[in-house]
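Section 3.1: Structural characterization of target chains.
Under the original work plan, the team committed to producing a structural model for every single-chain target entering the pipeline before any wet-lab resources were allocated. The record below documents one such target. The sequence was received from the expression subgroup and is listed exactly as submitted; it comprises 94 residues.
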Amino acid sequence: MKGIPYSLNTKSDYLNAFDYALRHPEYKKEVIARLERLRKSTFFMALKDEAFSKRAEKQNQDDYEEREDKNSLFRRIGFDNSEIDKMIEELKKC
């Protein structure tokens, strides 16, 4: 493999990219950004219960709240926060 694949879809894809970045420091920033993006994808913005009665034109950003996405890629492929944090720390060290 040369470089980081365009799409990372499995846990082993992310682990392979992590290992590759450890051996090739020029890819560190890209892998760190992808890991952080993966971790942030566990939440989504949803309409608050009390805002359902408002018309769409009257809704604003305050009518939404952040909720955990139980079906996010992060959860489906089997990562947890401590794993991601550990990988990011290790990449930042080297």
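The CA atoms of residues 58 and 65 lie 16 Å apart.
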